[in-house]
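okkk here we go again. third time trying to get the zinc ion bound version out, last two times i messed up the smiles copy paste (missing a bracket lol). double checked this time i swear
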Amino acid sequence: MEPRLKALLDEVRAARGTVLALTGAGISAESGIPTFRGSEGYWVVGSRNYMPQEMATKEMFDRRPDEVWRWYLYRFGVCKDAAPNAGHRALVTLEERLGDRFTLVTQNIDGLHRRAGSKRVFAIHGDAAWVRCAAECGLGRVDQPDMGRRDAATPFTAADRKVLSCPRCGGWLRPHVLWFDECYDEENYAADSALRAAGAADLVLVVGTSGATNLPMQIGEIAFFRRVALVDVNPEENPFSELAERSPRGFHARGSACALLPEIVEAVGDRCTVILDSGIRRGSDIVKALGLGAQMVLVGRATLYGTACGGQAGAARAIKILSDEMERSFGYVGARNVSEIGPHIFAGRSA
Ligand SMILES: [Zn+2]
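finally!!
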């Protein structure tokens, strides 16, 4: 791994920082899902060829709901056939290691993160697994009915129309996806939650997105202006890699998510929380335990002895002795504070 990237990730790991991963079409491309923004997304209605940016609109749905549904049923079929890849799995591992210090924000509607096992996912462009009432009658989000395998030539029938009717008001059900002529919101797309997570993140890890839409770009800019670590994983130059290259704490990791993410996750993710609660006699023992990987050291015995000898003042004295000894140990190993304690303090071990 590049030393600069390693240093950034080590910092986040040492500080037990929070991580926001932002993913886009690039991570799913390696599972065989096209972006549907190029020629593979074109759709013929009547004698006209429609661009994906014209199909995925409320305006088109209002005009030709049957055609928009035909297009989506074909696209959703492609998503259902795809399986999560090493990039998706790496982010599951990161969540398992960081717990609530991890948030995943995805632009992908294919549900592959969810199917891989990610739990804290904000699907800011929706998720193909669900539908909702197009008239927003209060039905809420329901599972997309299973309509069998569709390809681009499958016709739309009266039976399909019935299956895609709102059970509450009888109007059309619509895919639970954000269309080009619609705005982000919290209720359907968790937009505020995603921005809040960006405002709290110590590392923003951008994977396989070109930043074409505005909420993802805002997340990148928040990271840039807060001067937190900003790592862009993408084989190509893009607006996020430009931000990362301009940021003092940014890095453009040029390559595919499948190839790079497992290594990045290994560098930033803790395996578990280690709490040492035994054998502490001196402040130097605390420093040794932290250097060996403990995140927390319990010192009940010393304070109990102090309390037994001198009450509250005795406990305070015991804590003072331990902390003075810690300070001295910091000096011996050349550290200014706890965050600079690591395996490197031991002779013969490298960081
Ligand atoms: Zn309805």
